[in-house]
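User: C-alpha cells for this one?
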Amino acid sequence: MKKLFVKYIKRECTKKEVQQIVSYFKDSRDLSDVPTIESVYELLNEYPDMKEDVANRIKNNILEIAQNNQKKSFHKKYHLLKYAAVAVLLLGLGHFYQQGYFSKNPKLVIPPESITLSLENGDIQIINEVGSAKVVDDKGHIVGVQKGNQLVYSNDITKDELIYNTLTVPYGKQFKIQLSDGTVVNLNSGTSLKYPVAFIQGENRHVFLNGEAFFDVTSDKEHPFIVNAKSLNVEVLGTEFNFSAYPEDNTTDVVLVEGSVALYSGKQTSKEGVTIVPGTKGSLDKNENSISTEKVNLEIYTQWVKGDLVFRNSSFQNISKKLERRYNLKIINTNKQLNKEVFNARFKEEPIEIILNDFKNSFDFKYKIEENTIYIN
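Assistant:
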C-alpha cells in the first residue's frame, strides 16, 4: 500500500491501482500504511511535473484538515495518518477530474513530453530521466532497472513465450536501452521501440522500430537480430548501424558503421535483399518500394548519439524537420526560397535561437518565436 500511495501522488497509478486505493479506504480500519504529512510533503516537492501552485494547494488543504481534526480528537497520531492520505486521495482526485486527467473510467493521462514504458498487460509507466525505477513482469519478477536516461534488462530472465514492452521517446528527448541479450539501442527524439523482455532460445531476436535509433547489436550467429520498420527489415548477426524510419519521411534509411546487414522489404527474405558494407547507406523509397545504396559520411547520421547535429548538403526544409524533433517545436516557414537553400553546418547542444541566427547569417530572413512555434518569413 505504501508503494501504491507513492505512485498515486506521482500520478503513475493504473485504473486498477486507483480502484485498489479506494477500496482500501472503504474497508480498512488500520491505516498504519498511510503516509505521514511529512512524507506527503516530500513527495509533492520531489515530483517535478506537478505545478508548484497545485502542490501548494494540496498542502494547504491537508494542513487545514489537520488543524480541524486536532481540535476534535485526542487520538492525534491516528487522525494525522488518516487525514493526510484521505486529503491527498480526495483532493487529488478532485483536482485530476477537474483537469481531465481521469475519464469516467480512471486511467493514467500521460503528459506529451513524457518518456513512457508500455508493458504487455497494458500498464504504462512514466520514465523520469533523473530518477530510477524497476520494471516488473506480471508475476512480480524484476526484469529490468531504469536509472537516469538508461534502461537495462536482465539477461538472467527466461521466458517460455515472447512478452513485449514498448519504450516511447517524445520529441525533444533521447534515451538508451540495453536489451536482455546485451544489445544497446540509443533512441532519438520521436521514437518508439517494441522489444521482448527476454529473447527465446532457438528463435530470431526480433524488435520493431518507429523513428530513429542507433543499434550496437551483440553478436549471436545462431540467433539473427532483425529490426522491422513496417515495410523494411534489417537482419544482422552482430554489428553497429543507424536506422531512421520516421513515418513522415519519404525514405527509410540504414547506415552501417561496422559489420554487415541485409535489407529486405515486403515478403522477401534476407537472402533476397540487399547487403551493405560499412560506410554505406541503404535507402528504401516508400513510393517506389525499391532499395538503393550509396557511400556516405558516417558522422552525418551517427553524431546525434553524442548530442551533435550535423548537416551536409541538406536543404533547410529537411533541416527544419530535424530541428522540430530535437527541440520539440513547430517551424512554420513561408520563405520558399529558404526551404530550397542547401547548408553545411554542425551544432553542439545549442539553444534554438543560436542555431537560427547562424542560418540567418548565411541567408537573410526574419523569424519570431511564439510559445512552441517558430515563424519564418
